Amino acid sequence: MAATRAQKYLALSFSPGPGTLYQRESQFFAEATRNTYVLTQEPAKPDESALNRLPSTPVADSPDIVFSFSELKYLFECPYQFKLRFLYGFDSPLQKELGYGKSLHDVMAEVHKRAVKGDIVDTTEVEALVDRHLHAPFAPQPLKDQLRTAAIRSVHRYLRENGSRLALTEHSEQPVEVHLPPGVTVSGRIDLIRRIDTGERSIVDFKSKERAQADAVTRDQLHIYVAGYEELSGEHADLVEVLNLDEGSRSSREEVNDTLLKEISGKVAKAGNQLRHNDMPRKTSWCHTCAACDFAAICRDRPGAP
Fold first, then answer.
1. CA nearest to 173, candidates 151, 160, 190
2. Strand pairing of 184-195 and 201-207?
3. CA–CA gap between residue 82 and residue 72 (Å, rounded)
4. At residue 111, what are phi and psi to the nearest 5 degrees?
5. Residue 28: what pLDDT?
6. What is the reported pLDDT for 17?
């Protein structure tokens, strides 16, 4: 085993003890000494200063970094929160509503995947859709009933407002990889890509309270997806949309911002360098990100706390 793993030198020895069992050396040891490549005395150490060594160089200039957008958004919001979550292994406390947001997104994914195939969901199917996808394992039954009712209302509202455009769906849950700066890859999944009535393409993200994030981070995410869609298909998206699935919450729609699209590459490159050099500092002062952070108490006391 040692002979197959030795990379430069291999030392062979045996250690006779006071008993009679190990007094004789192995026959393989004797056989090795008859090999012309084996020395039976340790060689003198060479003068290393006289050796013409090649300079040490890394295999690559810098390691490749792969982010999911779920990871990248935390680095954008607060580098130290990213470190706590993904390098130190801290996790958010369990919420009773955990799973509701993803369940609602899964319903939307089925609606749109069927639309791509020409199968438009009818409102009579909404309850069955919700029952098939709703998974809130930590919710007590009364809360689970409330979540079911809220999900049914959300899906009905979505179909009422967007049902006429379902036939324009091009992709649902489309995986993309973006290579904005060299050596950094961002992977993600676009909720929806559709054409609007004017023939323009729109990148759509769904938002719910459980999956809420800062508007600026959402805009960054959508523009990264615009770059990913262009890299995947060669087509340039025209609009980015955030459709809010919660009742009484606003949605947003805007043209692709080419200036922001160019700035995104620098932000992603900076994120990659931060991870390579372990440069993930805390926020300098309390802010809205701290107020929503599950680990803020690790960094500092909340203002006004005793």
1. 190
2. antiparallel
3. 8
4. -55, -45
5. 79
6. 67
* Closest CA relative to residue 219, chosen from 247, 184, 261, 160: 261
Phi first, then psi: give them for residue 73, nearest 5 degrees: -65, -35
- Tokens representing residue 200 in the block: 């323009």
Kindly state the DSSP code that residue 27 receives in the 8-state scheme: H
* C-beta atoms surrounding 52 within 10 Å: 4
- Condensed to tens digits (0 to 9), the pLDDT of residues 76-127 reads 889 999 999 999 999 888 888 888 989 999 999 999 999 999 999 999 999 9
CB atoms within 10 A of CB 77: 19
The region of weakest confidence among 13-27, 113-127, 249-263 is 13-27
Q: Looking up tokens 């869609």, which residue turns up?
A: 229
- Confidence (pTM): 0.70
> Which residue pairs, CB below 8 angstroms and at least 24 apart, start in 111-118?
111/155, 111/158, 111/159, 111/166, 112/166, 112/169, 112/172, 112/173, 112/192, 113/172, 113/173, 115/166, 115/167, 115/169, 115/172, 116/169, 116/170, 116/171, 116/172, 118/167
What CA dihedral angle connects 95, 98, 101 and 104, to 10 degrees? -140
